[in-house]
Amino acid sequence: MPTIRKRRQKYQVQVRHRGLISVSRTFNTLKDAKAWAHQLEVQIDRRDLPADPKVLQTTTLGELVARYRDTVSPRKRTAKAERIVLGAFLLHPICRRRLSEITRADFIAYRDERLKAIKSSSLKRSLVPLHNLYELARTEWGLPIKENPVSNLNLNGSDQRRERRLAEGELEKLEVAVRSCRNPLMQPLVRLALATSLRRSELLAIRWDDIDWVQRTLLIRHSKNGQSRILPLTNAAIELLQGVKKAGDHVFPISANAVRLAWEKLRKRAGINDLHFHDLRHEAVSKFFEAGLTVPEVALMSGHRDIRMLLRYSHAMRQRVLEKLDVEKSH
Fold first, then answer.
1. Exposed (0-12), middle (13-18) or buried (19+): which is 227, by Cβ within 10 Å?
2. N or C: which terminus of the chain carries fewer CB neighbours within 10 A?
3. Other beta carbons less than 10 A from residue 10's beta carbon
């Protein structure tokens, strides 16, 4: 808070605030001194005063990470996983260093070290909260950080995205195996995943109130990108949902871990190797393209906000393009 001192016949106003540069000014009258002091208070509240560069010399990266973990992460859907990632990162020696000492070169060295132990895709996910906390520190926490050292960090890894589709006969094997599951919810869950391309988390979040039986739509309240959307439901999807027995507010009152364990047993029973539950989403999106849906129409179903992500399914689009070109040549 600003302090006012009378020195001889003048009044000196001084403000000292942690993280902000110290400011002082002298006035001939007490009235002017109080007016300027009030203006300083408003500027402090708005974080309009310049940040003190010295704060970077007294703050460690670990303190920044802990603040983000305790105040920002709990508000996110990925809070549990992010807390684990940040907790592990806090054990690294780089977190004991002052912010004034850390440069992009340090994160490049950290990248090279981690890539010896984990895949580039895993490292990329773990760097997301670090990138976000630096942006928050610059834009909202008032720290005088000139640039984000995590931005545009080249992970030097090949494209490791999965493009696993069901091979010939695997769908039939799944259908047979899922009928013998102890949990009766697994059969409609698997079938709905293939019919809608919904992620496991989105399927388990469906409430009965989210379904509009008349308009044949489903409200997806929280998708991976944090945005809600309305999903059109085919007649087959409607029939699947109508066949599920009500047992609470959620259509599938089952935990993600229970689905994971049931899926592994189901996959082994079907005799299928290297098939993840998430691969059903890739299969469904590929089927949408093969059915002749346009890119915007597929994006409506899949929830992709970045159309470029759908280029992963070029294998399905190529076949459709060939069919169209063959039709054109036959006329």
1. exposed
2. C
3. 13
- HSE on the CB side for 204, CA within 13 Å? 13
Choosing from 114, 200, 229, 281, the catalytic residue is 281
Residue 190 and residue 178 in contact, taking contact as beta carbons nearer than 8 Å: yes
Domain residue spans in the chain?
3-50, 56-139, 170-330
Catalytic residue among 31, 77, 278, 315: 278
Residue among 162, 179, 224, 315 flagged as catalytic: 224
pLDDT in tens, 56-114: 888 899 999 999 999 999 988 788 889 999 999 999 999 999 988 898 999 999 998 99
pLDDT tens digits, residue range 298-316?
888 888 877 777 776 666 6
The answer to whether 224 is a known catalytic residue is: yes
Report pLDDT digits (tens) over 165-210.
888 999 999 999 999 888 999 999 999 999 999 999 999 999 999 9
Distance of CA 153 to the CA centre of its chain: 18
For the chain, the C-alpha Rg in angstroms (whole number) is 28
Interatomic CA distance for residues 310 and 314, integer angstroms: 8
Torsion angle in degrees (nearest 10) through CA of 232, 291, 225, 90: 140
CATH of domain 170-330: 1.10.443.10
Residue 304 falls in the annotated catalytic set? yes
Sequence-distant contacts of 10-13: CB under 8 A, at least 24 apart? 13/37, 13/40
Q: Is 281 annotated as catalytic?
A: yes
